[in-house]
Amino acid sequence: MLNDRQLRQLLDNLTSAVVVLDGSLLLCYLNSAAEDLLAASSARVSGLPLEEIVRESAASQRAMREALASGQKYTVRRASWRLHNLEQCTVDYSVSPVPELGLLLMEVQSMDRLLRIAREDALISAQETTRNLVRGLAHEVKNPLGGIRGAAQLLQRELPDRELAEYTQIIIDEADRLRNLVDRLLGPRKPAQLKPVNVHEILERVAQLIDAECDGTLDIRRDYDPSIPEIPADSEQLIQALLNIARNAMQAIDESIGLAAGEIVLCTRIQRQFTIGRRHCPLVCRIEIEDNGPGIAEEIRERIFYPMISGRAEGSGLGLSISQNIINQHRGLIKCDSRPGQSVFQIYLPLDIGN
Questions:
Q1: What per-residue string of b and e applies to 91-113 under the rule 16 or more CB within 10 Å gives b?
Q2: pLDDT per residue over 145-176, tens digit each?
């Protein structure tokens, strides 16, 4: 027979969180997975009401008491828990009464990681679909543009009145403008040449360019992790990707609160055991570009990485699409969280591109 110590060791080796409550819904025990999930020590919370550690709803408390009285098990899917440290988490959990002991056993599975992977899979799939659509459309547009431009040049040579050449030149110039627009839609023409680079040197270059564009009016703060090793990247392309994001932030600040009141924060951190799509990365470099501008309008928040989508009247809607394309070439991920008064772009780049 197993003793109490051995039973606790077995429970502590489970990947599922196990929470034990008494008949008054007071915490009796958390295994190691539950301690990690709830950010609480079993010894410190023992004897406390569950609702002091986890807030769900009054209905959930009633359901647990009814389960104790009836002895019936039940399961809850996608429950939103607010923890004692004010963090939110989404979980599936099963409640099993143990009438012989007057206890309630909860088995809890965190769904946050699975939900994030599903969202990222959908995002990456949508990004790939958009890129393929743009590539196909761009090539279809460029072919007739070449013909239009060539015909305009031939016509220009044959015109008897040189004053009429002004009109053919307009055709040529507009064809060139459309061709350049299509080239920008396609993004970088050459694949990324990945070499070990210092991410902070790239961010400093971005900061210098933004500072020069706004004549030093905008406050640019740094919050770097100096321990980050060199990352495999194409310096030129990565500078372009980050510059597009930072320039968008600068322009949004300028149009809303003015550069003098604005702030951009460049932050780097190491993140361990991260998943990009379905690819596990032991280590990734997380770059954050945060600004105190007006935020991104809710109606376009989910579409900001699509071509021709812009929150500014003068915006081309290509900058973020190009940034996304570059980050994807680096096998990374780019995300955005925004609310009024704050936008944060997060770029995740694997430190080992082979993973």
A1: bbbebebeeeeebbbbbbebbee
A2: 888 888 888 888 888 777 778 888 888 888 88
